[in-house]
């Protein structure tokens, strides 16, 4: 289990844009299971939407990307580098994510060629799919 301090040793994101709270398990270059505890105090809820807070789909996608980045950037040859979006494909949003939810973020690296790769990403809340799709990344 990695806490936020250990996560920060692997990926470059920082508050308020660090979108994962803990990592349950990861295998460098292969995959990661992480969690985001969605609090009512999140910065984006002030405007999305007042009186009806919903986590934006782009931030669910970013949370998944950061979980995938833990798997990629924990590889010895990628330490100190960054993983950038190269594409988002087949992303579907199935369930609203709201304050109090514990978002489980699972990313499996399904393809890698040089600095480019693809991760199969699934976000769930209480076992129900909130979002899923494929994320293409480039290590720079």
Structure write-up:
It is a single chain. This protein is α+β, with helices and mostly antiparallel strands and about 140 residues long. Strand 5 (about 115-125) and strand 6 (about 130-140) form a beta hairpin. It has helices at about 5-10, 55-75; strands spanning about 20-25, 30-35, 85-95, 100-115, 115-125, 130-140. It has a six-stranded antiparallel β-sheet with strand order 1-2-4-5-6-3, with helices on one face. It is globular and about 45 Å long. The protein contains two helices and six strands. It starts with a helix and ends with a strand. The model has no long low-confidence stretch (mean pLDDT about 95). The chain has one domain (about 5-140): Thiol Ester Dehydrase, Chain A (Roll), CATH 3.10.129.10. The longest helix is centred in the middle third of the chain and has 17 residues, at about 55-75.
